[in-house]
Amino acid sequence: MVTIKQIAELCGVSRGTVDRVLNKRGNVKPEKEKLIVEMAKKLNYRPNPAGKALAARKKHPVVGVLIASEGVHFFDDMLTTMHHAAERFSSYGMEVIWRSMKGFDAAEQCRIIDELKDKISGLIINPVNDQQVIDKINECVDNGMFVVTINNDVESSRRHCYVGSDYLQGGRTAGALLKMICPTTLKAGVLLGSLNMLGHNQRLEGFQEVMHNHPDFTLLGVAETADDDLQAYEAARSLIADNPEINAIFVVSSGGYGAARAIQAVGREDITIVAFDTIPSTIDMMKKGLIKAALYQHPHQQGRRAMQLMFDYLVNGSLPEKNAYIMRNEIRILENVAD
């Protein structure tokens, strides 16, 4: 019987590349894909799913998923897709242990990692950018665990790869949008989840980079909201009360709904909001004209890709081909938000 290993050797590629082509999982250059398909046909390759599943079950791969998802509806779509993938991969014996947390407490995240580390061989984590967490991830990797960061990264760690959006580019895009939408004089406040999240800092950096060349821009303040709508509501109200001249709010992460409710409550619908994530509450506020635009970061693709990378490594032994799998930031306005 012809094996994937033999096809890989004859084509001069990795077994993981052959597996992706034969199982139609993409991310292979067209010329390599054509070569592999032709070689498999020539050798009359026939997959043996029962054998593959049996071999995988003997390994008993266990994945830990740790996401700061409590109260953050952006993660609903991501986790739905991850659960579907976990069900699909369960026939190969892959088990998933699910853990969630609220907010960005580094000590709590480390505590959960410690709880999981002796039970799992792979970890998908939405990490807090704190040295305690970085050290814990490095310890896991040093002990042979496969680690994928999702939606947020800690670049100084030794994680195997990152799956998520380009936060710096997202901040630049939001800044450019506000420059296009708002009056010539732009006086803006910024709401972000936590300064302990690398991505939130990168979006703020990208936003400020674009605004640096604005002829008449004032940053009125930056407030942390823990990605909580109630805290976002209070922070937005405080910004407005302290700065009556404000005419824009950039919501770096979750919290667009809270900010929109705040401008509605104080009768300041003249304030322009640009936010992230097209969750139902954001769409509702877009329909009311309170949020002018949102940036979409493909939560389904993020979840699907992270689980696929885990499966490829733990079941097939294939390391990621990239250090980072970046999802494109897409601009959504009312007219295309349902697309």
TrEMBL record:
InterPro entries: HTH_LacI, Lambda_DNA-bd_dom_sf, Peripla_BP_I, SBP_2_dom. Keywords: DNA-binding, Transcription, Transcription regulation. Coiled coil: none annotated. It comes from the Bacteria. This is LacI family DNA-binding transcriptional regulator. One of its GO terms (molecular function) is transcription cis-regulatory region binding. PROSITE patterns: HTH_LACI_2. Residues 2-56 form the HTH lacI-type domain. The keyword DNA-binding applies. Gene3D superfamilies: 3.40.50.2300, lambda repressor-like DNA-binding domains (1.10.260.40).
